Amino acid sequence: MIVIVAPGQGSQTPGFLGPWLTEQRFRDQLDTISHSVGMDLIAHGTTSDADVIRDTKVAQPLIVAAGLITAAALLADGRREKVGGVAGHSVGEITAAAVSGILSETDAVAFVRERGSAMADAAALTPTGMSAVLGGDEAAVLHRLEELDLSPANFNGGGQIVVAGALPALSELAAHPVLGTRVIPLQVAGAFHTHFMRPAVSRLEFFASGLKKNDPSLPIWTNNDGSRVAEGSRFVELMVGQVSSPVRWDRAMEAFAAAGVTGIIELAPAGALVGLAKRGLKGVPSVAVKTPDDLPAAFAMIDGDN
């Protein structure tokens, strides 16, 4: 069973869409999405610098757009029927919702535009940030977070927890890390997936109420607890609430393993989730589709699994 995964914020790098835009079909699709969100994603994916594409309002539509053009290429020619399921990490859940058919591409990009704006506005209310904590005992890490009034934002599996909260507390954690851990500050604009994002949730609940939701035509797993969700309306409800609650990617990978995963394919901008799979799903082959040159390997994985 092949599972397609869509990455979250922080996976983008300057110029990462350049190789895709050498093909007119990808340029045309990205141009259509750009018009839908009212943003020049072609420029942001090719010439904008790291500071510009780190802006939440830019980063989230850019990442989802990249995933959508990758998925369109990957699932053409009958390959959609050969895929076992799809999941997304954080904002990648919107990509997954479109790939699974829960949301139309138009509604998915409208939702990510609103999500990026709502989360950026919430982040602007209080200076906050995020850091990755690698290694160490999970219970000891969580205890230290409680002492510093920090929150676990992403349980990524493989010994990685992303934490979030006030900048002084994050600095204190980095200066005095838990024994056996390494703390890496992340280039994001706020404490995503924590109570700091609650103002964004109410705004997104209202926006999502106007979207058409279909039940998924591909199996899809939620970040909420790693379970498979059969109703499109329920998935969107969880996707909205997930903005202020932790991403349980560790449980998603556990669910993949229980379902019999035989391969992981990560949509562009790829790399982060394949890296987590190498630690959390040891021995499971993976392909990171970073550029069109990676598509043949992904095709071979899908076709070879049947």
Topology:
Blueprint: E1 2-6, H1 24-37, H2 41-46, H3 50-54, H4 56-74, E2 85-88, H5 92-99, H6 105-123, E3 128-135, H7 138-148, E4 151-157, E5 160-166, H8 167-175, E6 181-185, H9 198-208, H10 232-241, E7 247-248, H11 249-259, E8 263-266, H12 272-280, E9 286-288, H13 295-304
Parallel strand pairs: 1-2, 1-8, 4-7, 8-9
Antiparallel strand pairs: 3-5, 3-6, 4-5
Helix pairs in contact: 1-4, 4-5, 4-6, 5-6, 6-9, 9-10
Tell me the number of helical segments per DSSP (H or I, 4 or more residues long): 13
CATH class of the largest domain: Alpha Beta
CATH architecture of the largest domain: 3-Layer(aba) Sandwich
- Structural class, please? alpha/beta
How is the largest sheet built, in terms of strand order?
6-3-5-4-7
Q: What spatial form do the alpha-carbon principal axes imply? A: globular
N- and C-termini, Cα separation: 9 Å
Radius of gyration: 18 Å
Q: If you consult CATH, what is the topology of the largest domain?
A: Malonyl-Coenzyme A Acyl Carrier Protein, domain 2
Number of domains: 2
The beta-strand count equals: 9
